[in-house]
Amino acid sequence: RKPWEKQAMSTLTQRQLDSWWMPYTANREFKKNPRIITQAKGAYFTDDRGRKIFDGLSGLWTCGLGHGNAKISEAIYQQSQELDYAPGFQYGHPMAFKFAERLVDFMPTGLKHVFFTGSGSEAADTSLKMARAYWRAKGISSKTKFIGRIKGYHGVNFGGFSVGGIGANRAMYGQGIDADHLNHTQLDENLFSRGQPSSGAHLAEQLLELITLHDASNIAAVIIEPLSGSAGVIPPPKGYLQRISQICREHNILLIFDEVITAFGRMGAKTGAEAFDVVPDMMNIAKQMTNGAVPMGAVVTSSDIYQTFMDSPSKDYLIELPHGYTYSGHPLACAAGMATLDLLEQEQAIERVASLSPSFENTLHQLKGMPYVTDIRNFGFAGALTLESAPNEPALRPFLVAMRCWEKGFYVRYGADTLQLGLPFISTEQEIDDVINAIGESLQEIA
Ligand code: PLP
């Protein structure tokens, strides 16, 4: 027996396990073989067997600065004592305004107004509603359709799943809202590319075909992740985002970047917009925004969008945009977010990601040639492998590898035919080597 096997196993009863209908989880499998996380500090979880487990996805792309950061905890505690909650409808509190200002400073030039939400999914649906309302305010109410992208992920709400392009997330839910989709940018000729693939910019021209099909007078916005995260880290081909942005501008279509994964350092830059040098009309953020410590999201918009609502001819005491959440601008989330921005700066976390990502890239690509590995992709501190499908079971091998990794003390994400890494920004080179070795060993074990 290994030392950790002496520790008490989970004390959860079957009834407790059955009581939580877990999100995005194979509940039947999980409840036969629970993986229970009881503590977290820095880049490590502890499980209910007392084992230390390296957090290879920073939670769910949320906790880049590491878990249990004392400055974030302290900020949340202090705020909870000073003002735990304040309504954000028709009344405000200082932290939300101050945090919004800090976020505007953090954003690329041009994004100037922050609409707080409680999550990334809420940010997605907020941005879509804003886009429709914007065109209506401009007197062009026919502009209601959205263009998303195959393999895109924009959360789980009605707008988000409709513009999203991962089949499994849509299949059970029937009709959503009116949306069409661009092709994804994963081309065979780009297999095993490092960073941004060099070919694929031409795929942006497909937007012109969709405009011909639907007419720009009917299209409100294009929404894309600058780098597709959930579908397995698909960096944009060089020049692709620039061309999408240009076509949107020329056809009066708003461009929304869903940066729920890419903002706040993951790309080795403040945002994906900065990393890839394209500024959208709206940017959706969440996850790393509070280092995952308190749920929060936001849509950050251009002045043109904000001002369009402020210039509406209605009376000043009437609401310009009838939209918002009970927890929009929650004081505890704002406090966590402010502390997160401080830490990103003080610890030079973004610079650290930028400087270590070439070494992550080299180590990750050493998995080329391992059993079943058909592609490897990376950018910043995000990376993924595609595994060759087992007969009729594309999701099986990633699951088996992730379970092996978990047993070895490494948490990595598996989704469809991919394995994904979103390293903590505080990872050391040794930890990078170790997690990638664990994946390599696991691949050999299942071969
Ligand atoms: N948008 C993107 C790009 C995401 O990656 C996610 C979550 O993974 C979401 C939206 C949804 O965020 P949430 O799960 O906070 O609703």
TrEMBL record:
Molecular function per GO: adenosylmethionine-8-amino-7-oxononanoate transaminase activity; pyridoxal phosphate binding
UniProt keyword annotations, A-Z: Aminotransferase, Pyridoxal phosphate, Transferase
Protein species of origin: Alginatibacterium sediminis
InterPro entries, per the entry: Aminotrans_3, Aminotrans_3_PPA_site, PyrdxlP-dep_Trfase, PyrdxlP-dep_Trfase_major, PyrdxlP-dep_Trfase_small
UniProt family annotation: Belongs to the class-III pyridoxal-phosphate-dependent aminotransferase family.
Protein name: Aspartate aminotransferase family protein
Superkingdom of the source species: Bacteria
Signal peptide location: none
GO biological process, one term: biotin biosynthetic process
Cofactor: pyridoxal 5'-phosphate
Taxonomic lineage from the root: Bacteria, Pseudomonadati, Pseudomonadota, Gammaproteobacteria, Alteromonadales
